[in-house]
Amino acid sequence: MSTTEILANREYKYGWVTDIESETIPRGLSEDTVRLISAKKNEPEWMLEFRLKAYRNWLKMEEPRRWPNITFPEVNYQDIVYYSAPKQKAAKASLDEVDPELLRTFEKLGIPLSEQKQLAGVAVDAVFDSVSVATTYKEKLKKHGVIFCSFSEAVQEHPQLVRKYLGSVVPTNDNFYAALNSAVFSDGSFCFIPKGVHCPMELSTYFRINNSESGQFERTLIVAEEGAYVSYLEGCTAPKFDRNQLHAAVVELVALENAEIKYSTVQNWYAGDEEGRGGIYNFVTKRGKCAGANSKISWTQVETGSAITWKYPSCILQGDNSIGEFYSVALTNHAQQADTGTKMIHLGKNTRSTIISKGISAGHANNSYRGLVKIMPKAENSRNYTQCDSMLIGSNAGANTFPYIEVMNNTSQVEHEASTSRISEEQLFYLMQRGISQEDAVSLIINGFCKDVFLQLPMEFAVEATRLLGLKLEGAVG
Amino acid sequence: MLEIRNLHASVDGNEILKGINLRVNKGEVHAIMGPNGSGKSTLAKVLAGHPQYEVTAGEVIYDGKNLLEMSPDERAREGVFMAFQYPIEVPGVSNAQFLRLAYNEKQKHQGEEELDPLEFKDLLTEKARLVEMDASFMTRSVNEGFSGGEKKRNEILQMAVLDPKLSVLDETDSGLDIDALRIVAEGVNKLHDPQKAVIVVTHYQRLLNYIIPDFVHVLSGGRIVKEGGKELALELEEKGYDWLKNENGKPATTAGSAK
Predict the structure, then answer these.
(1) Does B144 touch chain A (CB under 8 A)?
(2) What does the alpha-carbon distance between residue B89 and residue A421 come to, in Å, rounded to a whole number?
(3) Is B102 in Cβ contact with A435 (below 8 Å)?
C-alpha cells in the first residue's frame, strides 16, 4: 500500500468574528474576580459561597497533565479574561431588545432566533461568550411546565431548584477544570422537566466564543423529574484566532425515577491550523446521575473540532435497573489531540451500560479512547458492553485505547471489544471503480464506520454530522 | 472500442505485463485465459486503473480517449466496469446507498437525471431480479457477511445498475458453485448487447460454457501466446497450459497446470 498523505483541509466555515462592543473585566483570577462576576450577575449569597468554595478548592488542585494522552504548553490562568459580555440591556423582555448584530451572528451560524424564523421543533438557548443572548419557545414550553432558560435567569427565578441540584453530580472539588468552572462560570442553560412530562420539543444550546481573550465557562444543568423525558442538543463554534482559548464547561444531568435524558453534542470548535497554532482547549466535565430506578441517560457526541479535547461524559447508575449509554465519534486531523471516553459507575442492581466509541485519526493527530467501567459490590447482575473502534487515515496518525475495568461482584458481566483499522487502498479503489470520487469514497467509508453512533442522533444532527465529517476529512487521503 | 498497444505494467518494480496487444470491438466477448501468475488479473486491474500497478510502456485507447490518463472513477463514469475477483466489504454502508451514489455519479456525468432513494429502489428491485438477489441484500452493508457466491452476484448486480459499455470480469467464476455460476453467467448474457463489449478473465473453461466468447486469448508470462475462437478454450481444457509452454519452446513446469 502506498503512503497516503494529508493534502489540505477546507477552510473552517465559522471562523469569522462578530464586531460588537463588549463589557469585559480585567484579565486575571482572584477571589475578587469571583466576587465581581457574582456581583455582576446580582447573585444570592449561597451562589457566591458556592463559587468561593470552588475557587479555594481550585487553588489547591493541579492541572491533569500526567495521565491524559495530550500535550500542551503551560496555560497562564492569570492571562485569561473570565467575563466578557456583549453590551446590552440587562433584562431582555423580547428579542427586539437584543442587539441586531447578535441576532445576525446566530442567523449566520444557522440558528435564527427571531420569532418568524425560529427552527421548528427545537427550542434554542443562544450563548455568546459569557452570557445567554436569547432563548426561544420559552412561553410554549412553560405551558407544559418545562423550564428552559439561561442559567443566570434560573438563579434569579428558580433558586430552590438550582440550589438543590447544582453541584449534586459534579462537586466543586471534582477536578481542576470543574473547580475552575464552578468558581467563574458566567452562564449556560437550565432545563427542568417536571414529573410525568414528555418535553414537547428538542431543547438546544448553541455556544459561540467570540472574544479572543476570554475563556468560556458555561454551566448546564438538566433535571428530569419522575417519568419525564427530554432530548437536548448542544452545538458550538468559535472564530479562528492564533492563540488558544480555554473552554471549561460543566454539564450536570439528573434523572429521577423512570426519567430519560438524551444529550447530543456536535462539537465544532475551531481546531487550530494545520501546524497546530490556535484552536480551543475543550476541557469539559459532563456527568449524569441516574438517581432513580429505571432511569436512563444517553450521551451521544460527535467531536470534530478543538485543538485538544479532554472530556468523559459519564453516568452514575445509582437507581436500580437504570441505564447509561455513551455513543461517540471523535475525529482528529492535522495536529488535533483528543483524549475522550466515558465513565460508567454502576451502583444500583441490574444496571446496564453501553459504550460505543469510534475514533478517527488523520494527519499527525492523536486520538485516545479512555473509559472506566466500575461495578460496585452492590450493583448485582449489572452488565456493560463496550466497543471501541479506531480508524487511522495515513501513516502519521495515532490511536490508543485505555480501558479501565473494575468489577467488584461476581454476578455482573462486562464485555469489551476493540478494533483498529485503516481505510485501505483496496476499499477506495473498489468504490472509485464504481464511479465514486475519492473524497466521496472516504466520506462513505467513514460514515459507514460511524453508523452506529449517527443512528443515535436526532435527524437534523445526523445530517449535519455526516456533512461535517466529510468536510473535515476533505483531502485527508491522497 | 478498446485498443491495447504494447502494454507493459509492473508492480513493485516487477514487470508483469510485457507487451500486450489486444483489440476489442463493440458487441464482442473476449476471454483472457492463462495459468496462475500469467498476468490475467493484472491486465484487468490495469484497465480499471488500480493504483498499485504502474504502466511502464504502451497505450490503451478506449472510445477514442487515452484510458491511462483517467483516474479510476473517471474510467468508471466513462463506462468501464470491473467485476472484482475478491469484492471488498464496506461496513456500515448499505448496498442500496452505495449503488445509488455510484448510479447518480454516472447519471450526473452523462447529464442524465439523478434518482432519489424511492425511485432508485424501483430500479434496484428490477435489476436484482436479474441475478436472483433477495431485497434483503439491499439494506445490508456492502458485501459484509455475504457468501462467496453472493458477493459475485452482487458484482453482476452492480454491473446491471451501472450499465457499462466495457465490462471486465476478473475470475468471476472462482469460488462459485454450479448454480451460482449459471445465475451469474445468465446475468452477464442478458446485459450484453451489440453496443457493449465484455472481457472475461478466467483460469478455467467452465464459465465459457455459459458465456460464449467470440475470441480467446491465452496469456503466459505477461504476453499473449495464443489466440483463437471459442474452441481454443476447449483445447486448453483438454491439454492444460503446459502444452502451450511446450509449443512456445519453453520447458514445461508443474506450476500452473490447469485441470
Answers:
(1) no
(2) 13
(3) yes
